[in-house]
Design goal:
Distance between the termini: 19 Å
Number of helices: 12
CATH superfamily: Alkaline Phosphatase, subunit A
Helix content: 10-25%
Shape: globular
Number of domains: 1
CATH architecture: 3-Layer(aba) Sandwich
Number of strands: 18
Oligomer: single chain
């Protein structure tokens, strides 16, 4: 499964235009890799208690098959956010589709450009009342016992199913290291329990007598590709990976390179595998109104999907591409075809001031009005720099998500089951039905349609499932 975090439909449309324009074409006619998939559907992204989803409740929906409360991961809506005690009973804790795959003897892994403990990837392995409990100190800060409610990094290393993931690639070293310890690039650890979870991961694999490697830069990734271990942990930044446009390409791998390594790792299991791949920094750039970075991250995501389609057969590999939620970037104006997607519209406002083709409803890019008129953003000295913020209407410290439905693109066996409009929580059940894992009816046991109870709601990424029947 591939997840473009915050990849709204306007984001897809604008990234498509940017792709074409980077190739010296008008842009509107271009096509992203996943737009060529034979089936497209729409999923509804709201949380149980919120009209507009965050990445935690949405991850619980598309990975665990259950709608949840905003800010919670891998637990039902019986758990309010930050309620440690309510999250402890097994009846409220959910298994993800990654766990279903492992239970069937397949392999599983995660790839992300965010911290591996961030909300979206954590939906595949964590059960927690607060997405922010990435390390034990954050649990304690909220007034809870971190021995009782384990933090997300701890769960990845020591709990089911995370400890059995064959490949974990992303950022977030700081969540695994104790206070006072600096990682390889000088980022300070954030754990107050004096635990080094990176070392503990390595000790666990050594005790199991399996081959393993911990890596933290591109050179080590390239070396690992020449002799892949059974287990691979790659943490390439203290926090999130750098934006693709700003990254040092000699030291930091791209999402496409990480995806390729993960598929090589997992393809060795003849029964198949589940892989979650997230282009997570699309979301972060949108929150900061940095539209060029958001679209470039979308194009890198497109490249990662293209690599997956190149490596995996359409006959036995289901690839599902979607988003967890939308954003409030607008694609607007009446510009002529081929006009610079990152520039101002052909039109001007009622005061004769230019406005951008891509702008935001809210966020930190607000400019104060002068004598009732908007500022002319094209006259700013940083205009069109990579980190330039597009203008907004409502001033906020961080741009909000949008409540729009998001697109679901599918390729592979029974891809047609992803057409239509449905709850986001249907996604893992449909994937499980097709790949013959988890509970309920399966495509390979003679069922010809989705049984209603398979997709019933019990209370926003790319995912790949490979099945060999």
């Amino acid at each position: 499964m591939f997840l473009g975090d915050g990849m709204s439909i306007p984001t897809v449309n604008a990234a498509r235009a940017l792709l074409g324009q980077r190739n010296n074409k008008t842009g509107e006619e271009a096509q992203l890799s996943f737009e060529a998939f034979p089936t497209v559907g729409m999923s509804k992204t709201y949380c149980v208690n919120a009209q507009v989803a965050d990445s935690a409740c949405s991850a619980t929906a598309y990975l665990c098959g259950v709608k949840a409360n905003s800010g919670t991961l891998g637990v039902t809506a019986a758990v309010p956010r930050r309620d440690c005690q309510a999250s402890l009973t097994s009846s409220v804790q959910l298994d993800s589709i990654a766990a279903w795959a492992l239970a069937d003897g397949r392999d599983a892994g995660i790839v992300t450009t965010t911290r591996v403990t961030h909300a979206s990837p954590a939906g595949s392995y964590a059960n927690t009342a607060n997405r922010n409990w990435e390390n034990n100190a954050q649990v304690i800060q909220d007034g809870h016992d971190s021995e009782l409610c384990r933090d997300i990094a701890y769960q990845l290393i020591h709990s089911e199913p995370g400890k059995n993931f064959k490949v974990i690639l992303g950022g977030g070293r700081r969540e695994f290291l104790p206070l006072g310890i600096l990682d390889e690039e000088g980022t300070a650890g954030r754990r107050s329990d004096n635990r080094n979870l990176i070392q503990e991961w390595q000790t666990d694999k050594a005790n199991r007598n399996v081959s393993f490697k911990y890596i933290w830069n591109k050179e080590q990734l390239n070396s690992a590709n020449s002799d892949l271990p059974e287990y691979l942990l790659g943490l390439f930044e203290g926090s999130h990976l750098q934006y693709n446009l700003e990254a040092n390409k000699t030291t930091e791998p791209t999402l496409t390179e990480l995806t390729e390594t993960a598929i090589k790792m997992l393809s060795r299991n003849e029964k198949g595998f589940f892989l979650f791949v997230e282009g997570g920094r699309i979301d972060h750039a949108h929150h900061d109104n940095m539209v060029e970075l958001a679209l470039d991250e979308t194009l890198e995501f497109h490249s990662a999907v293209a690599k997956a389609t190149e490596m995996l057969s359409e006959e036995d590999s289901l690839i599902v591409v979607t988003a967890d939620h939308a954003h409030v970037m607008a694609y607007n104006g009446y510009s002529t075809r081929g006009r610079d997607i990152l520039g101002p519209s052909n039109n001007v406002d009622k005061d004769g001031r230019p406005f951008m083709t891509l702008s935001y409803i809210n966020g930190p890019g607000f400019r104060s009005h002068e004598n009732g008129a908007r500022a002319d953003v094209t006259e700013e000295p940083t205009f069109r720099s990579v980190r330039w913020q597009s203008h907004v209407d409502v001033p906020l410290d961080s741009e909000t998500h949008g409540g729009d439905d998001v697109a679901v693109y599918a390729r592979g066996p029974n891809h047609q089951l992803f057409s239509g409009v449905y709850e986001q929580s249907h996604l893992p059940h449909r994937m499980a039905y097709i790949s013959c894992i988890g509970r309920g009816q399966h495509a390979c046991n003679g069922a010809t349609v989705l049984a209603p109870y398979v997709i019933t709601v019990i209370v926003s990424l790319v995912t790949i499932i490979r099945s060999v029947y």
